[in-house]
Amino acid sequence: MFAIIDFGGFQYKVEKDSKLFVNRLEAEEGTSFDIDKILLIDNDGAVKVGTPLVEGVKVTAKVLEHMRGDTLVVFKKKRRKGYKVRNGHRQYLTKIQIEEIVG
Hints:
Blueprint: E1 2-7, E2 10-15, E3 19-23, E4 32-35, E5 38-43, E6 46-49, E7 58-68, E8 72-78, E9 83-89, E10 92-102
Antiparallel strand pairs: 1-2, 1-5, 3-10, 4-7, 5-6, 7-10, 8-9
């Protein structure tokens, strides 16, 4: 059984016990929460597609930890002008685990 969810403006394919990295959540570590925006659910070949959402289905997830992602280097240069700028960026992330898909 798997589901396609819409969470934080992104779409994820999730299964039971799968782990995801999402943008930082305000929830504390160890707390559970429900996700109601389910776009598609597949229960061993029986597929339900929402228009736009599937009704009566929810996904329960648990916050595992808060962390920061890998460093992304942003480099800008204008040729022949002597202009070079190098910056780094680390995104704040939350690691969640899907506990169950009910529906």
